[in-house]
Amino acid sequence: MIADDDEKWLAAATAAVKQNAFYMQRAIDSNNLKDALKFSAQMLGELRTSKLSPHKYYELYIRASDELRSLEMFFRDETGRGCSIAELYELVQHAGNILPRLYLLCTIGSVYIKSKDVTANDILKDLVEMCRAVQHPLRGLFLRSYLAQVTRDKLPSIGSEVEGDTETHMDALEFVLQNFTEMNKLWVRMQHQGPTREKEKREKERNELRDLVGKNLHILGQLEGVDLVVYRDTVLPRILEQVVNCKDELAQCYLMDCIIQVFPDDFHLQTLDVLLGACPQLQPSVDIKTVLSGLMERLSNYAASSVEALPNFLQVDAFSKLNHAIGKVVEAQVDLPASASVTLYLFLLKFTLHVHSDRLDYVDQVLGSCVSQLSATGKLCDDKASKQIVAFLSAPLEKFNDVVTILKLTNYPRVMEYLDHDTNKAMAIIIIQSILKNDTRIATADEVDAWFELIKGLIKDFDGLADNDEIDEEDFQEEQNSVARLVHFLYNDDPEEMSKIIFRIRKHILTGGPKRLPLTIPPLVFSALKLIRRMRGGDENPFGDDTSTPQKILQLLTETVEVLSDVSASELALRLYLQCAQAANDCELETVAYEFFTKAYLLYEEEISDSKAQVTALRLIIGTLQRMRVFNVENRDILTHKATGYSAKLLKKPDQCRAVYECAHLYWAEEGENLKDGERVVLCLKRAQKIADAVQKMANASRGASSTGFVSLYVELLNKYLYFLEKGNPQVTGETIQSLAEIIRSETKKAEPGAGTYITSTLRYMEFQRQQEDGGMSEKYLKIKMEW
């Protein structure tokens, strides 16, 4: 309803302005001064209304002020035709109402100044004083805005049309400051006009009008006569006096921001004490973080864009002043939210990183100040504050691109302690991503400790949280995989220091709990194995102690992998035991290698019960044992016999068959004649063939003569025979293979397409070898009759 009334009143006032403007223009065209003044006064009389809202009043003001431009040109033309400008200045003062009179006075006053018939200072003083007659906040504000607008290009300053001496420049400065002061008072007074229930509405309306007041500061910033001395001694104190004394939240916040944005950066730098001294005097409800962050951001950009300015920052000790000011503000505003205080320190940190990037002590000091502030709040529950802390901690990472540098900041992990569990993990991921992106190497044991302190949110649970709490499994896997990747970035070329790093990593990783250990122990083990192989071939104890030998590290790995057995990760533990056994083999540590195999066998017997898992584990055991060269005959026979026994006990016959013929490789190694036992190879293959016969008989009995699903077992066996034939096993002869070939031939007609392809490929290979002309190999294959 009120909005409709506003539109009606605005429409009526606009129509009256248009009508009077039309008659005014007609009088101007006929050079009728009297009628031009009459109709212009009537037009301006519409601005006396109190019915319009500030927004609608602004529309009316714009229309009326646009019409006054033609009147200003008319006054200028009249003076050119011999009319006295002084008489015109007196004549307009006979208007009946004060508001139209002052608008006309400002219009003719601008022409009067430009004519230079009188000093600009006299006219400016007269105008700014007479405008005091209008004390209605809205009407007075727009009147003074018009005064600033028409005199803006006529102020005495260097390079302007009305250039004067230094004293004249100060008069122009005084005029703008006085107009600003009066406008600010009117603007603030608007807040107290009307009932309390409409307070928010008035604040919104005032916010829409703030640029009218700020226009004066823009004019000040563009005056040529305002140098650093004038700004420091006159302009800034006068403005700050008005800002502090008005005690209005909206005005203080806006005007402080205007000061920062309008005046040059070097002015701010040289008057930092004065500007910062006003901040604690502002109203507690003022958004001080916006003010100070704007100042620090501008100074940071100034430092980044001008290398020559950096010495000035050091000269005025800008960092200490800003740090002290923020502390005072935080202390004065006890109700300041945690997010606001963190934002202040964030911008101070960015300022420090831009200006004093070589001063880690400054960076650490800012972190420490933030810790002191957060100590009163405890862990942050506010999402906004947590996000600000993440941005706060990310700033040094983005600047230095080196986590090793971050590790030198003692207060960095202290800030992270105030993050909740989820945000702490997110920050740890950011740190890890920085290491991966920049390929950062962490090369000492102390740095490893410091690094794990930073990412402890990923390594272990916080107090009050358990591993069985609801978590997203995919996210959890990704987090732990990130930690696993980072283990490989903890590296030192010195074996002694690397050994210390391994021990430190283990200390931290073992605190992770049953869900994390299967993901984080493997990279530790492989990192240690890499170190062991680097140490291979050196002295038994190159460091003069017993903590860094390959044997000692392998002992450490024994204890580490055992932990996986306790957290239901037996299959993984078995794989790692076998990896460790290979490392012990490379170091020629027979006893240690035998111990690892013993532990792997125990896990296979006691913990692995799933048939598929048993098949996989047994293949790994056989493959690893086949590569071992460190064992004496007795130990090798024991381990081989065990593996063969496991093969015969698998649940499914086809798996038994394949495992048994794989065991044949345990009796035939390429290196060393003492590791070749042709008879046992053939024994394994014949045993596997018997199992295959049993499989085929059971299949035929249960499914009929068309069952061919296990023919491939015979083909696999044939390939094994051919392998050992080529390797020179004297016990594998053409006659031995021929009997197996007969069985395969009898089953070929019933073979499935897949099996038939396998058979065809094998036969093609055999034929290829028969046709070779190298002599030795072809003779072996010629003994096998191929009547297929």
TrEMBL record:
Keyword Transport: yes
Localization, UniProt: Cytoplasm; Endosome membrane; Golgi apparatus, trans-Golgi network membrane; Prevacuolar compartment membrane
UniProt keyword list: Cytoplasm, Endosome, Golgi apparatus, Membrane, Protein transport, Transport
Membrane topology: Peripheral membrane protein
Single GO BP term: intracellular protein transport
Gene Ontology annotations for the cellular component aspect, listed alphabetically: cytosol; endosome membrane; Golgi apparatus; multivesicular body; retromer, cargo-selective complex
Family: Belongs to the VPS35 family.
Primary role: Plays a role in vesicular protein sorting.
Protein name: Vacuolar protein sorting-associated protein 35
Natural source organism: Brassica oleracea var. oleracea
Lineage of the organism: Eukaryota, Viridiplantae, Streptophyta, Embryophyta, Tracheophyta
